[in-house]
Amino acid sequence: MKKFLALSMLTALVLVxxxxxxxxxxxxxxxxxxxxxxxxxPKAEDGIVADAPKECPNKSSVVVKSEETGTxxxxxxxxxxxxxxxxxGTFYFTNYTFDPQSAWGHTYTDTDAMAYFxxxxxxxxxxxxxxxDAAKKDTHKLSxxxxxxxxxxxxxxxxxxxxxxxxxxxxxxxxDVAIDDGYGSITGKFIAKYHKWTSSL
Length: 201
Prior knowledge:
By secondary structure, this protein is mainly beta. The chain has one helix at about 1-20, and strands spanning about 25-30, 35-40, 60-65, 70-75, 80-85, 90-95, 115-120, 130-135, 140-150, 155, 160-170, 170-180, 185-195.
């Protein structure tokens, strides 16, 4: 009976081992003729938002371009929507760790870049899903379009400015931005973390 139980347990262990996916390994020859085999720890894919709402992309594809900053790809971790009031807020996209309570408290290094733009409503309705188009004169106002770096702060002018919000929640604000004045641009799909700004006064 003991032999039967031992054989059954051994068979079960072999079957479990066979069903496991093999992890990638690296074999390194040593100077003494032996080899060392190492299995690297699994890595999470960079920039993926695990709890992204179904209406949102699970990573940011925002690209900021200007003469001063070059081309900057912005990760979801550095994408923010900061609500000042229910009817107005500002999107910030940076390549550095951003403090949503202190947008201007950062000291720029040579490679740091920040792009931002504000959305609001002239009829005082709360910002929600919808379109903001600088070429249209409606109740949706798109303003303060800017790219900042250590070298310069560049305002983006003209009417080639559109923002589409497809999801607005207390966790994230998601959508698509297409702002380009020929000298600088902010473009791509975004998942921005939501933050309600609070006054310290």
